[in-house]
Amino acid sequence: MNRDSKDRVWVVSELYYPEQTSTGHILTQIAEGLTDEFRVRVLCGQPSYSARGVKAPSRETRNGVDIRRCWATTWNKDVLLKRVVNLLTISFSIFFRMLVHLRRGDRVLVVTNPPLLPFFASIACRLRRAKCLLLIHDVYPDVAVAAGMLRAEAMPTRCLNWFVRRLYRSVDRIAVLGRDMRNLVRDKLGDRQRPIDVITNWADLDMVSPQPRDENNLLQETGLTDKFVVQYAGNMGPLHNIEEVLESAVLLRDHQDVHFLVIGSGRKQAWLEGAVEENGLTNVTILPPKPRSESQDFLNACDVAVNAFVPGMLGVSVPSRTYNILAVGKPILAVMHPESELALVVEEEQAGWVIPPGRPADIADAILEAKADPDGLAEMGRRARAAAESKYQVDRIVDAFATALRGEPG
Question: Model's pTM, two decimal places?
């Protein structure tokens, strides 16, 4: 197909290559995958998360994608006021660039992070008569309620819900990460429904695969080659149920052949380190975050992987690392609502255990059950890898986005 005859798609996101946090990585792969069918252009900011401080070109073409980076502050996101300023400047900057560059009939894919950006993108699309596909990574204000930042029935929460409903009703189509999220968004839309596509994230099958235990560098470096390793890898923020992972470690402290390996950072890291010291736990090792380039090594450094959410997260978010855990063939211990997307996947693929929040003793029992049945654990791992290969390939996911952008039934 001649490039000039292709329809134009704009991918709008604060984060994009060389930013390799989950949103930046995901949007980069989606944009590059769409180039076979569309002329793809990106409006984004300079790196402000894991690659903060890197000065990328204000405009460049990479893997067929025309990238236009908009000016915005890139201050330290861990300081709330500076993070808010970053959010405001990137949202306004991208909005004005959209007004300049969008043409009638263009298609726009905008993600919900940061939360203010899709509101501006929706307004720009309506003014320029472009089609808007909203990709929901987190449902607001529900995510703030689950994090304890807002009360469910408080006036600010009700006001935010009103604005979010207006946003959902203003776009042409919505993509969500899971079936539970689709149900929640439908409830918010009420009697003014929009087409909603469930388009999951995917496994980086070219980057990660099952690895023999005796070849794992991280297990050797940490001296855990002879232990049954339970791994939690990822953010340790207010939405993540680190407390119950720690409680299960306390319950299993006398099982010296079971070890917990925690890899990551976040607001709860200091609490976790203090709790490990206070309880005198020798069965917990805490390591800083590992770069995406080391995923093969650190995701394989365990026998069971844990994903844990606090209560109230049904339909609110889906952990993106799930699919790479499947890809390395590790059974998953999903501590979350049984109807959440990850829990449904674990049950459907028979690739682990689902335990609702509030049952740390059940987490400990599941770990001991897994350790006592190595053949069953290996079979779960094979089913996990097979699911990643058959259902969570990037090409399939990109095709789903292309279908949604064309306006065809999913």
Answer: 0.93
